[in-house]
Each structure stands twice: as C-alpha cells, then as structure tokens.
Design brief:
By secondary structure, this protein is an alpha+beta fold. Helices cover about 30% and strands about 25% of the residues. The strands form five sheets. An eight-stranded antiparallel β-barrel has the order 14-15-16-17-18-19-20-21. The chain has a seven-stranded antiparallel β-sheet with strand order 6-5-4-12-11-10-9, sandwiched between helices.
C-alpha cells in the first residue's frame, strides 16, 4: 500500500512540475505578445509596447508564426491570425509558409554535403560539374572562374538578384529555361570578375541548384529531402515546386501590402534553391539547433564540424557559405531573411549559444512587424539579437518649416507629392508607404518614425527638392 501512495505522490509531483513549467512559458509568451517595440525610437521618449494582434492589424498582416529556441531546444512555437481568411483556416505551429530566400542557406547544405562526400570541390570551376548547360564564357570568366564557394557567398559575379515567381495559371519553366532567360527573368550570366565584389544573386543559387542536380543525379527536392531535411527532422518542409496536394492540408495563402489575397493564393518558384522552400518556423528552428549542436561537437550531425566551420567563416560582406554572419565570438549570429510574393520572414540564431528566433508572415508588409517581434523577444530574454534604432530629433521654428511646403515631382515616374505643414509638423501624404509625419533630425533631414522613411531636402539658398531613402529624387515644383 505504501508503494501505491508513493507512486501517486510521485505522479502528482511530476504533474505539478509540468503544469508549473507550462504556466511559466505561457507567461513568457504573454509578455512577448504584449511587448512589441517599434523599430525606431526617439531618444528621451518612454518606450511604448504593443500587442501583436494590434500590430498585425496595423500592418495588414493576416498571419504570423513564431518559434523561439533557448539553450538548444525549441522553447515555444505559436501561430497567430489566419492562414486563409476566406476559409477561416488559422495559423498554428505546423502551418507551412514560403520561406523565400531563407531557402538559400538550407539549400546550401546540399552543396556542402556533396563537398563532404568528395563529389565536388568548393573552389573548382562549376562548369566542370555542369552537364547540359554551362555558364557562358566571357572576358570575366577568362580572368577568374565561378566556383561553389563564390556562388554560396554571392561573390560569383552573377546576375539576377531575385525572382517574382509564377502565378498558378502561368507556364512553369524548367531550370534551364530560367538559366537561359526564357522565363520571366533575364539570362543568368557573369557580368563582373568572379570574386571581385559581393552582390546578392538568386541567379547564382540557381546555378548552384543545377550543379547539385547534375552531380547527384537527383532533382534538388529529392536530394535535399533525403540528405538534409529528413536527417535534421524537418518533416514539414519541402522544396517541391509547385507544391503537391499532399502538402496542402495546412499551408498559408499569400497576401499583398494591403492585406488582400494574391491571385491563385500563392506563386510558384522553379528557382527552388533560391526561393522554393515551403516550411514552418519550427522546422527552421530545427535547422538552427542542428548547426548550433554541430558547432558544439555533435558527432552524427547532418554535416561535420569542419564543414560547418567553413560554412560559418566570413567572406565578403560578412557572408558565409549560405547564411549571413554578424558579430564575433559569443555574439556571432547566422541567419537569413526571406521575401516571396505575399510572404516575409526572418531567421536569426547565435552560433555559440543555443538561442534563435524565427518569424514567418504571410504578407508583403511583414518586415516591420517582424522587427517589432524580434525586438520584443530580444528585450524579454536579454539577447543582443535585435534592438530598436534610437534617433535624436530637433525642433525647428515654424518659419523654417514653411520653406519645405509645396509640391514635388519624381519626374521619371510622373509622381507628384505635396509637403504640408500642420501644427509645426511636416506631412507628406499619399506616398507608396502611406502618409508620412516628418520629424527633423537636422535642418534638412527628416524621418517618419512609423515607416523609417528618410526625407532629405536639397537646399541651395532655396529648397530645390528632396531625396527619399537616399534613392528617389523629387524636384520641387514652382
């Protein structure tokens, strides 16, 4: 009888411990959900926090998925809002999103696996491995050859930054069609000396994809599933494009900047290595954990520590063999952002600590929301992974602000915007990013705190125009 009482007591104790742990985690989640912090803060102002649903509504983001890794384990993962507002399907921790360019660092593991198996060399001319398509030789490739290392670090000198995708009704091109410019993007070629500069190139990753397929003899989605995704445990991830019906039980639709469903619910991407991964925040968390564990000495990882160390070595522009790299030593972070039509995502993880944050959204406006979520997570756990940008503003007299009033034209596109003055604040209405409330940082430089847009007025005795975000030049109309 005493044994039975002891067993009951032990089970109750264990149950209470689990309940206490769940309550603690839920309290953390609640604090983060209500602790979103704008990415731009004015020096001296009290930092205001926001609720996640409030900010989702503000940015017109229907659905969000978050996964947080702490001490090498997924601490919590949760979905918010709708995967499909028409059907009422809600986002949960198992909802698949298009990863966008986060596809690249995961796909890079397939090339590194072939390197580790002695099937290819990182610094050999990739044309040696390509079978029924070759990088066209020109004056640049005569000086330096394109290699896997250069492709993975965006230093291959290759063209085509990214890909818009194809609607469901569009003809779906083969990878060679994309490489030859017979899809909806230009031909992928070398237009500068390989290795001479860093320049982001989805085109380069498409060449890498072709190398992996030609060397392995398998389609990318098949090779990477067998050798990378499943060994890591990423069972809710696929590079299949277009995605098969068997995967469509719990996937998110895509939404534009106004929160409207895009035509066909999502686009398709034949450029699988560059943009074709469907996955979950939790599966991306498993990728982060796998890399962290291997760095810490895991022996049976998807790749060896030696290979992962190569992957996490900085090249030009702080880029590794797949992921971007920021910081040093204990603060070294690997990660990648991702943007497809109607999807915006981000993934950041410490190399030498078991912490990470992954946020996936099903909207074009997800970027600013992601920044606020990362600020909340980083602030709560005291991580250095993300923090708001603190700016100083100054007061200018009304007489000086009056000089900036008027209409301004972006002549190349025929866009006319009007700067107005209301209650000592400059307002720029009906811009592509909404109405801007401009606060002065200097006598000529202003910022809209909500969007982060920088407006710098051009003054030569009189106001001649302004430059928006150091890119678009508007001329003041008389």
């Amino acid at each position: 009888m005493k044994k039975i009482y002891f067993l009951i007591f032990f089970l109750i104790l264990i149950s209470n411990c689990f309940a206490q742990k769940e309550n603690t985690i839920q309290a953390e989640i609640n604090a983060i959900e209500n602790g979103l912090i704008k990415n731009i803060q004015i020096k001296g102002d009290a930092i205001k926090t926001f609720n996640i649903q409030e900010r989702m509504d503000f940015y017109k983001v229907p659905g969000v998925s978050i996964a947080v890794v702490e001490n090498g384990k997924i601490k919590w993962a949760k979905g918010y809002g709708f995967a499909n507002s028409k059907t009422g399907t809600k986002v949960d921790e198992n909802t698949l999103f298009q990863a966008g360019s986060i596809s690249k660092p995961i796909a890079a593991l397939s090339a590194l696996k072939l390197f580790e198996n002695d099937s290819l060399e990182l610094n050999k001319d990739v044309n040696y491995y390509l079978k029924n398509w070759q990088i066209p030789e020109n004056k640049f490739t005569k000086i330096e050859k394109v290699t896997i290392e250069k492709l993975l670090t965006h230093t291959g000198g290759m063209t085509v930054h990214g890909f818009p995708g194809y609607q469901q009704t569009d003809e779906f091109p083969e990878i060679i069609d994309v490489l030859n410019g017979n899809g909806n993007t230009p031909e992928i070629v070398v237009d500068t000396i390989p290795g001479s500069i860093w320049r982001y190139s989805g085109g380069g990753y498409t060449v890498m994809e072709k190398v992996v397929e030609d060397v392995s003899g398998l389609a990318l989605e098949e090779y990477i599933s067998k050798n990378i995704l499943l060994p890591i445990g990423m069972k809710n991830s696929t590079y299949q494009q277009p995605i098969l019906k068997e995967w469509q039980n719990n996937i998110s639709a895509a939404y534009d900047g106004n929160g409207n469903l895009i035509e066909g619910l999502w686009n398709n991407y034949p450029e699988q290595a560059a943009a074709g991964l469907w996955t979950t925040a939790s599966d991306l968390a498993l990728y982060c954990i796998e890399i962290q564990d291997i760095v810490q000495g895991k022996k049976d990882g998807v790749l060896s520590k030696n290979t992962i160390d190569k992957m996490l070595t900085k090249h030009k522009n702080n880029w590794g063999l797949g992921p971007s790299l920021n910081g040093e030593d204990d603060t070294l972070i690997f990660g990648h952002g991702g943007k497809n039509a109607g999807f915006t995502n981000d993934m950041k993880a410490f190399v030498n600590k078991g912490n990470a944050i992954i946020v996936m959204t099903n909207a074009d406006n997800g970027g600013k929301l992601i920044a606020e979520i990362k600020n909340a997570v980083s602030n709560y756990y005291k991580w250095s992974i993300s923090q708001p940008n603190i700016i100083e503003v100054i007061d200018l007299p009304n007489t000086e602000l009056q000089e900036f009033k008027g209409k301004y034209e972006l002549k190349e596109q025929g866009i006319v915007l009007e700067v107005q003055l209301e209650e000592n604040i400059l307002l720029l209405r009906n811009t592509p990013v909404g109405n801007l409330r401009l606060l002065a940082m200097t006598k000529t430089k202003f910022i809209d705190v909500e969007s982060g847009t920088i407006i710098e007025f051009l003054v030569d005795k009189k106001v001649k125009g302004f430059i928006a975000n150091n890119t678009f030049k508007f001329v003041k109309l008389k």
